[in-house]
Amino acid sequence: MTRILLTLLATTLLSIPALAQDKDKPTAQQEKMKSCNAQASKKGMKGDERQAFMSDCLKADSKAPSAKQAAQQDKMKSCNAQASKKGMKGEERKAFMSDCLSADGKKDDQKMTAQQDKMKSCNAQASKKALKGDERKAFMSKCLSG
Q1: Burial of 59 by CB count in 10 Å (0-12 exposed, 13-18 middle, 19+ buried)?
Q2: What pLDDT score does 63 carry?
Q3: What are the sequence ranges of the domains in the chain?
Q4: pLDDT tens profile 60-75
């Protein structure tokens, strides 16, 4: 009986360091959270956009995103870039993102293409004039709004 108790006690004492090591090791969910957080930070996401991304990221399998998810991520990236370019913040940005993300894709694609064409044209003009720095920024702003 004493021998059994001593064996049990020794086994327990020997397993304590192993338990402590497992406690320090992050769980799979913690690793996934860390990875998703890093991705959101890398993309510069904040507020509701970050929250939505984190939710999707944590729900997703470790496999590549589906075509639908990839398309939604691309759309979110595009809408976010447009909002940033327009200097939107707070409620204005939130409303814009909501409209942009729920808008008909074809309509957005046509707008984006027209805007991209205008950007290319203005950029070419600025390059032709060899504009740099603040002078180029001012020219591009005026060109794109006109």
Answers
A1: exposed
A2: 59
A3: 2-103, 112-146
A4: 765 566 677 778 888 8
